[in-house]
Design brief:
253 residues; alpha/beta; Rossmann fold; 8 strands; 13% strand; globular; binds adenosine-5'-triphosphate; binds the ligand Nc1ccn([C@@H]2O[C@H](COP(=O)(O)O)[C@@H](O)[C@H]2O)c(=O)n1; dCMP kinase activity; kinase; nucleotide-binding; ATP binding; P-loop_NTPase
């Protein structure tokens, strides 16, 4: 049985459960983690961010959007007029990079220095530039250290972290690891019309190009050993949230 099939099976079983929310972790070992760490990866538009956030809310967990860290560094580079194709110049941005992100799923404001960049980091100019800084190894090491410290920080009994390499690099030993996928047409349809001022064709080009560049650095299209695959192509948004919550409950109850 492939990882994909076995996960669909476990998703089906888990979705049928109606167990109450549990914040304990009796079945899955937390390992060195101080709380339940849920790692979710996937390509652009798969629903990682919105689904992870809603799942965290449903479970009373925190939520960590790791892409916001990369986007914020790209935003800083654009503000300073840095050549983002020059790895040395990009590494220079890390010196004194004063970054903060909220992990309350109801308050995910993002700050760089004194500037609230929550909205700015979603602008197309940032989406178009972010892959250039994400390919610099020193950037990844720096941000991964930061992400790990947030995952292990005191707070709620669990945290859902989403990105591209959370299941494989940031927290390969997380008690729950999920690859959230959806086929290309579904992902593009979900993204279509989301970004003001851009045609659907431009949005599609941007999403596919970002995936192409990002997948040269980390593999987020296939599940690593032990990672559950959840294909949301045929699921509604609410069904996807339910499936993710059920997978988490099944793993920790
Ligand atoms: N199962 C689903 N069915 C329909 N729409 C969905 C589903 N999952 C997510 N969406 C919608 O798809 C859009 C993209 O979702 P989201 O921003 O969470 O994706 P993402 O994987 O985090 O993308 P990116 O990596 O580009 O930030 C959102 O409008 C979200 O509401
Ligand atoms: N774990 C991660 C998360 C993100 N990236 C890079 O950041 C970009 C923006 O991420 P979104 O989730 O907000 O779309 C993404 O395109 C990657 O370049 C990453 O490398 N690793």
């Amino acid at each position: 049985m492939s990882a994909h099939e076995s996960t669909q099976e476990s998703t089906r079983e888990a979705t049928q459960e109606s167990a109450p929310v549990s914040t304990g972790a009796s079945r899955a070992s937390l390992g060195h983690w101080t709380r339940v760490v849920v790692a979710i990866d996937g390509p652009a538009g798969s629903g990682k961010s919105s689904v992870s956030r809603a799942a965290a809310r449903a479970l009373g967990y925190e939520f960590l959007d790791t892409g916001a860290g990369y986007r914020s560094l790209a935003w800083l580079g654009l503000e300073r007029g840095t050549d983002l194709e020059d790895p040395e110049a990009v590494v220079g941005l890390l010196d004194g990079f004063d970054y903060a992100i909220g992990t309350d799923p109801d308050d995910v404001r993002v700050r760089v220095g004194d500037v609230d960049v929550t909205a700015a980091i979603r602008e197309p100019r940032v989406s178009g530039a972010v892959s250039s800084i994400a390919r610099v190894p020193q950037v990844r090491v720096h941000l991964n250290d930061l992400f790990r410290s947030l995952l292990d920080a005191p707070g709620r009994p669990g945290i859902v972290a989403e990105g591209r390499d959370i299941t494989t690099v940031v927290a390969p030993d997380a008690p729950v690891r999920i690859l959230l996928t959806a086929d290309e047409m579904a992902r593009l349809a979900r993204r279509a019309g989301e970004l003001d001022g851009q045609s659907d064709a431009d949005v599609a080009r941007q999403v596919l190009e970002r995936d192409r560049r990002d997948s040269q650095v980390v593999d987020f299209m296939t599940a690593a050993d032990g990672v559950l695959t959840l294909d949301s192509t045929q699921l509604t948004f609410d069904e996807t949230i339910d499936a993710v919550v059920s997978l988490i409950r099944a793993a920790i109850d």
